Amino acid sequence: MDWEKVKIASWGAVGGAVALAIVGFAWGGWVTGGTAQQRANELAENAVVDRLALICVKQFGEDLEKDQKLVEMNKKNSWDRDTYVEEQGWATMPDEEKPENSVARKCAVMLAQLKQ
User: Fold this and answer.
1) What are phi and psi of 28, to 5 degrees?
2) How many angstroms separate the CA atoms of 74 and 88, rounded?
3) How far is it, in rounded angstroms, from Cα 79 to Cα 101?
């Protein structure tokens, strides 16, 4: 057995594995278990916020002064609208004491898109 050829082949295999890992993680879409878990958590949280924002919009729709309040909200800067939605109580879910800021933010975006 020619040990020099084995040595060269072994280093070639190691180099190929390293190159494959670099390409896989950089361009192939591979992720670590921690990254996959983080992405799954973000997707789940976004799905919950999307559903709760629909409840927020529904609660807005039940407000007797909704038309006037929508005009007031739209006059505010976009970064202040979520606070306005929270103050109106629309982002406070049934049986909850406090509003969720992420829900208020999404709700404000949805409300701003409504026709007046």
Assistant:
1) -90, -5
2) 14
3) 12
